[in-house]
Amino acid sequence: MNRTQRIITGLSIGALALALVSIAVGAYTLALPDLLATLFGGGTPSDRFIVFKLRLPRVLLAMLVAVGFGLAGALFQSLLRNPLASPDIIGISGGASVAAVLSLLIFGATGLVVSLSALVGALIVAFVIYLLSWRSGMNGMRFVLIGVGIAFMAQSVIGYLITRGDVRDAQQALVWMVGGLGGASWEDVLIMVVSLVVLVPAVVLLASRLRMLQLGDDLAAGLGVAVQRSRLALIVVAVALVAIATALVGPLAFVAFVSAPIARRLVRGGGLALVPSALVAIVLVLGADFVAQHLLATGTQVPTGIVTGIVGAPYLLWLISTTNREGRAS
Amino acid sequence: MTQTVPASRTTLSLRTRRWVTLFAALGLLAVVLVLSLALGARGVEFSQIWQALFAPEAGNNDQLVIRELRLPRTIVGVLAGLSLGVAGAVMQGVTRNPLADPGLLGVNAGASLAVVFAISVLSISNPTGYIWFAFAGAAAAASIVYAIGSLGREGATPVKLVLAGTAVTAGITSMISLVLISDADTLNTYRFWSVGSLASRNLDAVQIVIGFVMIGAVLAITSGRMLNLVALGDDLARGLGQRIHVARAIAAGAVVLLCGSATALAGPIVFVGLVVPHIVRPFTGPDYRWIIAVSAVVGPSLLLVADIVGRLVVAPSELEAGLVVALIGAPVMIALVRRVKLAGL
């Protein structure tokens, strides 16, 4: 096995173990044999209720949205050739947040309506950035800079909404903007599964073109890649991934940004590291959600997005300080 | 012969263009300063401005408004805008990343965390009381980012600085959210500080930070030549005899002083540091000495225009300058980005 395969195997085992622990541990903890029996169709009715009604949807949703965030971040960062080009920074999460906070604070919306608003907000913002950055062709740096401008506008609208409203509403908006898995349901899981079934094969199909685009537009065109069309397709896929995941669980701070740089530093080979990025994201979100639920004793439910920031940041810092050769693509 | 003529013409025109840009920016700033004293919810005659500043009459309310309210916020706007504009230009030079904002060194996040601490643990609710917390938090966060970014064999490379800055910012932001989500009283005080405003900061704050701003600006200007070499890439700069670690450390020191001051004065104002160098660069070309000098003049103009707009649009109420600046600055930035060729970044 080469290094990449070893890393992928290790991350997969870690993700699986974390998933099992997350399903097993809680106010009522299942022993491993009981857990496995329940998962494979046996178990007592109460075990089945706890696993299938309460814990499994949350764990599955965590893993699925993590794939969405991790892949989207890796795609954006590679495509736009900038480690800062994650959806949080180029305004797509900001668009989702503005729409969600508007619907929460001004229209008093809840649940699915907030999710739909966030989805629409993210898509509109992405579309606007793309239109504005189009000038006889789409330039990656232009896309990023315009996205950053839009992100700051979104932030200022959010600042306005937060300072004008009642403080409890502001707090509720803040909780949404941090992102969390508390409301996970089987419908959410289904939506995310369907989305990934469509989008992941698209990523696989487009990956080889992305690899060539990374060599530079001219070289890629010379190698027979339809540069503009490929880039548009990649952006559409990445935006869809992050918009749907954000609509379901909020922006989950930092996951999209951090997963690819961590994966590339682990793999060390340069290249896209799409699979490792998705796996790193899964481990990060599952780990963060476990910490949020069980290890932070603050009385109130801590949103998962807070922990992804607190856990992800030191890990990235540690990697930065220990690797001598930085990942080429980051 | 035929080849040298156009070459010399372009050098000449670039040099002229730079001076014209600098004077145009200074002229604009002068106009903005007068407007900042004249405009607001209360209408004031222009003639009153001169009197208010140099020959104040007792009991004249217009002059009182100018001296006690508009003059302090104008001074705060000039200092904060200058600091952010210069710091932004230096950051983009140090990291060689056109997306680098002074906030990227973790300054805003560090200041915010320290202020949250001041509010929630020490129950301080007076903005002047935040100054030292903001300054200390900003400096601590920037030092951590820089120290982590410098670990490893190659020292503080641009990519490592950018990643370290974003990681520290994200970690600190999460901690702030953790406090705010469980503590409504702190959120209630903090949210008004966090949007960034030039109002209700008094001249005591200015006296405290003005020295830091001046030292920071001098360091920034002196680092301009080094940043020009850094822009060529680490290896080439080193080959030209540039002590690259020293250059980066000086520039980072300037950013900490400037951003710490700006945040202490006006709260975490975003965007000015990011956008001002982008507005300036098309006119000055890639020479960092010029970018920094012109940014020092354009930064205050942008921030004060935002403040004036915020005073007028919802009068007699106000929108904070920190909110307005992105709403009017972002379209400008987008228009520029669309117009300019991006090869020079």
Secondary structure topology:
The complex is a heterodimer of chains A (330) and B (345).
Chain A lengths: L2 H22 L7 H8 L5 H35 L12 H14 L5 H23 L6 H25 L2 H12 L7 H28 L3 H6 L4 H23 L5 H13 L6 H22 L8 H19 L8
Chain B lengths: L3 H35 L7 H9 L6 H35 L11 H14 L10 H20 L7 H25 L1 H11 L8 H28 L3 H6 L4 H23 L5 H13 L3 H26 L7 H19 L6
Helix pairs in contact in B: 1-3, 1-12, 2-3, 3-8, 3-10, 3-11, 3-12, 4-5, 4-6, 4-7, 5-6, 5-10, 6-7, 8-10, 8-12, 11-12, 11-13, 12-13
Describe the structure.
The complex is a heterodimer of chains A (330) and B (345). Chain A is built from 13 helices and no strands. Chain A is mainly alpha-helical and 330 residues long. The longest helix of chain A is centred in the N-terminal third of the chain and has 35 residues, at 45-79. Chain A is globular. Chain A starts with a helix and ends in an 8-residue tail after the last helix. The relative contact order of chain A is 0.16. With 345 residues, chain B is mainly α. Chain B has a single domain (4-344), classed as ABC transporter involved in vitamin B12 uptake, BtuC, CATH 1.10.3470. In chain B, α3 (61-95) packs antiparallel against α10, α6 (158-182) packs across α7 (184-194) and α12 crosses α13. The longest helix of chain B is centred in the first third of the chain and has 35 residues, at 4-38. Chain B starts with a helix and ends in a 6-residue tail after the last helix.
